[in-house]
TrEMBL record:
Keywords: FAD, Flavoprotein, Metal-binding, Mitochondrion, Oxidoreductase, Transit peptide, Zinc. Its cofactor is FAD. Belongs to the FAD-binding oxidoreductase/transferase type 4 family. This is D-2-hydroxyglutarate dehydrogenase, mitochondrial.
Amino acid sequence: SESYPQVQRDSRFKELSSDDVKAFRDILGNASSAMVDGLSEDASDDIEGYNADWMKKYRGHARLVLKPSSTEQVSKILKYCNDNSIAVNPQGGNTGLVGGSVPVFDEVIINLSRMSQIRSFDDVSGTLVVDAGVILESADSYLAERGYIFPLDLGAKGSCQIGGNVATNAGGLRLLRYGSLHGNVLGLEAVLPDGTIMDDLTMLRKNNTGYDLKQLFIGGEGTIGIVTGVSIICPQRSPAVNVAYFGLESYEKCQQAFREAKKQLSEILSAFEMMDGNSQLLYSRASGAKLPLESEYPFYCLVETSGSNTDHDSEKLNTFLEHVMGEEIVSDGVVAENETQLQSLWACREGVSEASQHFGGVYKYDLSIPLQELYGIVAECRQRMEEQGLMGEGEDKPVVDVVGYGHMGDSNLHLNVACRRYDKAVEKALEPWVYEWVKERKGSISAEHGLGLAKKEFIGYSRSENMIKLMKQVKDLYDPKGIMNPYKYL
Ligand code: FAD
Ligand code: 2HG
Ligand code: ZN
């Protein structure tokens, strides 16, 4: 496919035979749990959907998708694969953005969607235990009925799975408030390549008895084992949620607004997101939605508060807005007056990711950059695309637009180069330039999406040789045959 690095199929991995397919069928005990293409009589054309990623940028050639329904089945499948040197690709909701969720060659896809039971919920502590295949939004709806909230939220909530969220250590829209999965996940159940079930599904908030091995699976992207169960601490759902969306004249003013939001909204602040003007125009152009403010601004911010008292919170948010407008930090703003408005303000932020690939293709960079310099790369990148004659309205120009947005409250920028098609000239103009820019500022080339296939070869821009060596030792220890998600991550 268009942006695959030059990799060769590793000949150590066995090619599937019909005997293997039969063995898997015996393990699953249910024909419909396996989807086979070209290896047996029940060929399935549906397999394409499992081979293609969300961006339609990466495409694997798996001929077999297995859908286990229990941890024991996952264990038997992995043991068989390990014994026979069959490479595998763990897969959740397939919403990953770095090409990690689809095979590179013919790796067997182990899709967790059938493991979708909520195992338990403790209404006093807020501890939720789920199968890895539970959809994020389903877990959150379940919690909402009980007055709780899932401590992670992101645009792909309708299809991503909690196991996938854990495997990518997804950050999302409320990390600012609830912190990362490294803190919220209390326990994990995972299956190692040799079939061992790592039973660490504790519900303890504190547990300093030895190395905290589960942390390796959080952000491990399916390279050392398959997550099958997750226990997670969930906070009380705030009855009062308010959202404001405002326009600003400069990035400097966005920083001032963030400073003021922390000062004035303090404990009720639950999100602070930034979107540049071009990202909002792109969103409007791709979705047909009308933007919330009358005039156009070079920058926009979305602020969310979550607290326990509607009147008190609205007053705080309105006072904040009056203040920042009075001080001319913010030029214009709107506060959502009902749930529908609140959703449409959030859509202006959450919809950018999809809008940026609407025109045919997109190069996505997910960067941690010190806050002061965070936006600098967007302006420079835009200039670079223009100077190299790559961007414009004409069909001959591959680049439609360069936009910047993201989790400003966490110093995490999303740089998206929206394209009409995938184009090597664009890729060459961007890489490794983007990574060098980030390295010079001691940032991270992967803040929250992971490495997958897309960032694998660039890990050295954010990690030292020593660190990479230690990581490789971990990989070799857990997965000595290298069957788990090969060609990716390290
Ligand atoms: P997949 O895409 O299926 O897999 C992702 C990786 O995890 C792969 O390497 C896969 O092999 C591995 N994996 C999956 N399940 C398991 C398992 N059970 N055990 C072991 N390994 C497994 N990310 C953010 O951090 N913040 C955001 O705000 C955000 N917003 C997004 C918005 C949109 C519209 C989209 C499409 C994506 C967004 N993402 C975001 C990317 C994010 O990584 C995924 O949405 C999500 O966390 C992946 O979950 P998934 O179930 O789809 O996993
Ligand atoms: C978001 O914050 C996601 O919207 C996706 O992390 C970012 O598509 C992207 O680059
Ligand atoms: Zn994000």
